[in-house]
Amino acid sequence: MLRGTALTRATRTRTILNNLSFEVPAGTTATVLGPSGSGKTTLLRLVMGLDRPDTGELRLGDQLLSSPDRHVPPQKRGMSMVFQEFTLFPNLDVEGNVAFGVKRARDAETRVDALLELLEISQLKHRRIDNLSGGEQQRVALARALAVAPRVLLMDEPFSNIDAMLRQRLFERLHSYLRANGITALVATHDHQEAFYFSDHILVLKDGRLIDHNPPRRIYEQPANAWVAEFFGDTNLLTGAELGVLAPGRPLQPAARYLVRPETIELTDPGSGAAAATVAKTVYYGAYQEVRLRLEGTGPEIRVHCTGPKTLRVGEQVGLMLRTDAAPHPINDEPAD
Ligand SMILES: Nc1ncnc2c1ncn2[C@@H]1O[C@H](COP(=O)(O)OP(=O)(O)OP(=O)(O)O)[C@@H](O)[C@H]1O
Q1: 40, 42, 81: which to mutate for ligand 1, most atoms within 8 A of CB?
Q2: Is any atom of ligand 1 closer than 6 Å to the C-beta of 32?
Q3: Torsion sign across C-alpha atoms 195, 198, 202, 206
Q4: Cβ–Cβ < 8 Å for 32, 44
Q5: What is the pTM (predicted TM-score) of this model?
Q6: Transmembrane residues, as ranges (predicted)?
């Protein structure tokens, strides 16, 4: 278990990490998600031991790694970190880079070859670093970090330079590899799709505070507040009174606000459903069509994601209702810390 307790890191003028407490169970992957400048890299550097907390403690299992008066140096933590800007050795080839920390191990060559294969860079084995693409260098950096068989792998935006198709494939393989080898991982990203795919838990950071810390489905369906709801996807934030129009008979608090995800609203033929609306705008996203609706009478604009072959057009009349299996989540606007 990697455990941070009340970690704070500040400069003279500002607080970068504010009283962070979290747990990452051994062998699981957690992503650290947040907008640019929210403190993700600082948290990873602190876990790696490249930076020290001003207050709080960091432990791996029973071992105290960091506290205001104790600091285990990075090379003694059994961790590897893949940085946002790659730090490869330009004078060595790909193999030399990946083998750097394991040269003396008996199975070094097999281990290096297996990692090159895992990350689809075997064909680059004898290439120089300085003529590789950004995505290729990223994979070399990842292979090098795994080669030393770390207990904990820290990755800062590890797939930012890799195209979507390859990224998906590498995700799957890396995920299985981490699981099979019992490696605990902490991955910083600002891409929520990447976080959904990859994580057992997501740590959501905003302005240096941990505002949500839960498995992906919980974060998407029952986020800590409206900001988290919006960061993780399109939202409708409706009062109980507004939502009641789409879901008659549901027990709702009229003045409370509810999160209603766009895919939990069903469009029906005009004249059917719970309410009537007109299509005000549509955007095509491939897997679904986003439709913005104006309810008859007054009321908020409603966003709906429609799948299937039917294309809706601006001005068209539709019926709509909350899906019977949807569970609207009451939203609390106070940060949950
Ligand atoms: N050594 C430092 N001195 C002063 N400010 C710092 C220092 N390190 C980080 N910061 C500031 O702390 C904030 C958090 O930085 P950090 O790099 O951790 O954010 P991030 O979430 O990783 O951002 P990005 O997604 O852009 O990489 C930023 O506003 C940054 O400018």
Answers
A1: 42
A2: no
A3: negative
A4: yes
A5: 0.90
A6: none
